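User: Modeling request: complex.
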Amino acid sequence: MNAILRTDNLRVEYRTRELKQGAKLALKGLNLTINAGEVFGFLGPNGAGKTTTMNVLLGYVNPTGGAAYLFDVDVREPIARQRIGYLPELTYYYKFLTAEELLRFYAKIFEIPKAETEKRIDQLLKLVELEHARKRPIRTYSKGMQQRAGLAQALINNPDLLLLDEPTSGLDPLGRMKVREIIQRLKNEGKTVFFSSHELGEVETVCDRVAILHQGELKVEGRVDDLVKQYQCNLEQIFLKVVGYNAQS
Amino acid sequence: MNKILAVSGVVIRELYRRKDFYVLFILTVLITLLAGSANFFNDHSIVRYLKEICLMLIWISALVVAITTAARQIPFERENRTIFPLLAKPISRWQVITGKFLGCWLASGAALLVFYIFFAIVSGTREHSFPIGNYFQAFWMHWQMLGIVIALTLLGSVALTTPAANVTIVFIVTLGILFVGPYLHKVAIRMTEPSASLLTGIYFAIPHLEFFDLRGLIIHDWPMVAWLDIGAATLYGWVYSAFFIIAACLVFRRKALN
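Assistant: Request completed. Predicted assembly structure:
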């Protein structure tokens, strides 16, 4: 199998301001391999290290130890991000630009030819149902529309790997369904999807494999079906067991 | 280069969609026209004072546009978190900084050109002459000076946490260099060691922004400056701009974004 995303003994240490506390270990030697065509769910409670892993993969934070690779290129090289699409949890876009200007800007960064850019903008705005608002500044969009514009920008380079950071967080049921449909469609096209989420039902539905992270360590990794068989319970119960949650009866 | 141009394009769009420039331009126009309508003692040389007032307003407005535009770039990208989807693309941090510089410089240049065209119209209608060469030299040198100030502001914006602090510091430094900088070596002569050497060192280290001030040339209708001197001053400006941009890139490269 072709490894699209790989982390080797990845360690990230944050220095805290308090003298007595010293450094905080956010990731303790994470080893992950994600193969082409997989939909991979990255789970964990808040503070488990999911966002830190994403930050390393996207080059925002340099690892303290170990390494991470996208398409066998070290993530510290900008070119590693040529074939990825990233959708952040919340919408962070230039509000004074219109949707088509935003897409054109990102397309230029990917150095997509002009004719191809215009074709893709038309296709994507149709896909995310923003054709009617393409010439309006993003600041006039509703939250759901902004998230859809985000999805369009994540797909502008026709990525082989999509990194989604809690993609359905804050969306209404219709928006969630739309995102799920798009993930499914990308999966059918043979794309690789790596996403972090707290929506375990959703993860169970769309993911081939999952990993559960807790306190910076990888606790469980495997195919969803295999894990359900092994633990004799659903993904939510597996998650709660792994993070050591004991319900008070 | 395409990536740098793409980033600069967004900066230019931001400037013309904001109201700062339009407000400053309208204020300059109003003050100049008000000053131009006054006629004291039928003094024909009053047009010189008018030109001086107009150019002073242009200098202030250009500095405000350049510094405030450059100061908000990186901090606002971080505050609004637009830096995250941007850096998730195949673009390096030095390309972002260079693109920001280019965008601010081109946008400030376009704003400056509008101001100088207005100045040329006001001055031309009063004096019935258009010394285009002089105007061009004054505009060109002014623009090069703004390049240094923008690069310095970008360096401040990656090193300091708040844009307000950066704007204040850059304004003080720029005005200090313009008004005090030229006399530092003269002050140093009267001082004792080691202060004298320190001040002399500062005199030679700071970019001498007064080299780029050709207001006298168009106020007093002096002959044009030799093009070789203009070229040398341009090169001098580019060296300082490059130095500040490289420093900004080095600081930004080490910043963890989370």
